[in-house]
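Quick start: what a row looks like.
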Amino acid sequence: MSMRSILGFAGMAFGALGVVGSASAQDPRYGGGPGYGGRPDAVDCKSSGYNTQRCPIPWRDARLVRQYSNTQCVRGQNWGVDVRRGFIWVDRGCAGQFVDARGGGGGYYPPGHGPSNPPWQPGPGWNQNFSIRCESIGGGDRFCSVDVGGRGQVYLQRQESSSPCYEGQTWGWNRAGVWVTQGCRGVFTIDRRW
């Protein structure tokens, strides 16, 4: 075998290793893929183009430890946690690194909020029940934005469509609002709780 053949074979072998290495770096299980930070106990989540993004988390609650965006990330306004479905949602330009809320130490505090300043709380009219109408037009997906709150609930009050409305299949909700699909149309009760 010539030296040129050996060097060519070695180059291909190292090239293949480089491809495998870069592919594993993109895999979230290795801490480098989309939605994941460099540390194994953190998740990076970014709202691209001011659109809502969902990032899976292995915890029941999260806290922001590092803000990447110029847009201030404020829980309940442009980021939150969907406990039932196990993800963080970010919206309207928020981008940051999140960790388990039960973890200790560190943490990002927006200006005016920190250990010596209590976190923002909504006004006295926050905890209330009200109704909204949400409709899947032409069988398409639709998201009706409403802040449900961290301990809130949503119920189908009245179905107005001939297409069925089944929670988890043709309608559902998270802290950011209600989604409908496949022709579901209805009036939904929002039991908003901070």
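That is the whole record. The longest strand covers residues 128-135. Confidence is low (pLDDT under 50) at residues 9-37.
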